Structures are given as C-alpha cells and as structure tokens.
Amino acid sequence: METNYETWSKDRLIGKIYDLEATVESLKTVTAENDVLGVKDRFKLTLKEARLLTALADGRPHSKRAIYEFVYHDEFDDPPEMKIIDVFICKIRKKIFPFGMVIETIHSAGYRLNDAELMKRVMAGEVNVGLPTEEYQTKNRQHGENEKAILAVLLSELDGTGRAKIQARVLAKKSGLKVPLLPLMTKLESKGIIVVKSRPDRKKRLDSWVVQVKARAL
User: Fold this and answer.
1) CATH 1.10.10.10: which residues of the chain?
2) How many CA atoms lie within 13 A of 59 on its CB side?
3) Buried-state track 52-75, b at ≥16 Cβ within 10 A, e below 16
4) Phi-psi category of 140—alpha, beta or left, where left has phi over 0 and alpha has psi -120 to 50?
5) 117: which residues sit within 8 A by CB, 6+ positions away?
6) How many helices (H) and strands (E) does the chain have?
7) With contact defined as beta carbons under 8 Å apart, do 99 and 120 qualify?
8) How many Å separate Cα 82 from the centre of its chain?
9) What distance in Å separates the CA atoms of residue 85 and residue 52, rounded to the nearest whole number?
10) If we measure between CA atoms, which residue out of 56, 130, 138, 65 comes closest to residue 95?
11) pLDDT tens digits for 52-63?
C-alpha cells in the first residue's frame, strides 16, 4: 500500500483525513447503535439507511469507504458492493428532505449532512414537516399546495446527484395539476426551491425538465 503521503494530491489527502476521522467515530458503534434505532423510527428508514444517516449526523464529510464500514460493521459474510451506499444515499435524501435536511456530495471526499444541528432538533421533536401523500386531493387546492405536489413528485424522481429529470406532461399528471405547470415551476425556481438545469422546448412536447432540488421550505 502506498504510504508516501508527500506524493498524494490535496484531494486525496483530504479524503484520507476524513477516512481516519470516520474510522475513529466508527469505534463508537455500540453506543451509536442505540442512536440508530431512534433515527430509524424518526425518519421511517430501514436499519441500514438509519446507520448511514447516523454516520453523517455530525455534519462532517465522510468517505464512502468509512460509511460502508460503519453500515456493514457486523456483516462479515458476502457483504454487498460499495456502490450500495449510493443507492442508500438517494433513498435517504428523499426521506429527509421534508425536514429541510440534505446530504451533500463532497468531490473526492464523500458525503456530509448539511445541518447537524437541524437533525438534533428533528430528533428532539422540535421539527415536524411532511409532504403530500399519493392520496393527496387535487381539487380545491389552497395556496402553495400545487407547488408541494410538484415537489413531492420531483423528490421521488431524484437521482444520486440530487437531480430530477422528468417529462413535463408526466410531471403535471403525477402532480394532479388542473392548472398550467410552467408558472408553478417558475415560482419554485424564484423561491430558490429548485434550480432549473434544462427546461422543455415548447415545440418539443417530449422534452424533459431537469432540475436540482434544494432544501428550502415551501
């Protein structure tokens, strides 16, 4: 194994530091497991998802390797490939977004939770936010409820980078809209809730919206 750190790039050295810090934290596994159960119940996560979110709860960047070892510390026979962490991250992002929490991707370093203090407040029951369910009524919606319905659909379409790509007609249908989609998307963008990366051409009805979803309350 290469140990001549003087030859390493800055990004690689930073990643190594995060790895070492996360390894120290992972030694606290027995205590952390009690926290995991609370996180699991609060955010409606699976056990593995809860372990991952607990590993990020300190708000510091952690490498994928360190997260993987924390999540699978008790599995020695035929553990899954490390890319499973990306799948978990994508699923957790959707579940914690309603609370204003976001898992950020740190280039060449791994992942970090955007607001450790907010997570503490959520766990203490001080923050309780929800998004519309699939049974959400589409008629007689009040102010802002169409935007919430759109956001709920976008969250369900997020990929591992926090982006959603969806055709305009599909987005409108899934959101149950009875009004034009474009003004609502423009409003979400103006509020800073989404960042539009690509929008459909009016002449090309099958084009898709590509948006980055931000942790902002409606």
Assistant:
1) 5-123, 145-213
2) 8
3) bbbbbbeebbbbbbbbbbbbbeee
4) left
5) 59
6) 9, 5
7) no
8) 18
9) 8
10) 130
11) 999 999 898 999
In CATH, 5-123 is 1.10.287.1700: no
For residue 107, with 0-12 CB atoms within 10 Å meaning exposed, 13-18 middle and 19 or more buried, which class applies?
A: exposed
- Residue 110, both tokens: 């791994």
| Fold assignment, 145-213 | Arc Repressor Mutant, subunit A (1.10.10)
Residues of the chain short of pLDDT 50, as ranges, are 1-2, 27, 30-31, 131-140, 216-218
**Residue 33: per-residue pLDDT:** 65
Tokens in use for 52?
Answer: 């991952």
Residue 213 host element (H or E)? strand 208-213
CA distance 36 to 105: 22
Task: Specify whether the CB–CB gap between 110 and 63 falls below 8 A.
Answer: yes
Q: Model's pTM, two decimal places?
A: 0.54
Residues in the chain: 218
Q: Which helix (H) or strand (E) segment is 149 a member of? A: helix 145-156
CA gyration radius for the chain?
20
Nearest CA to 160 out of 73, 87, 212, 62 is that of 87
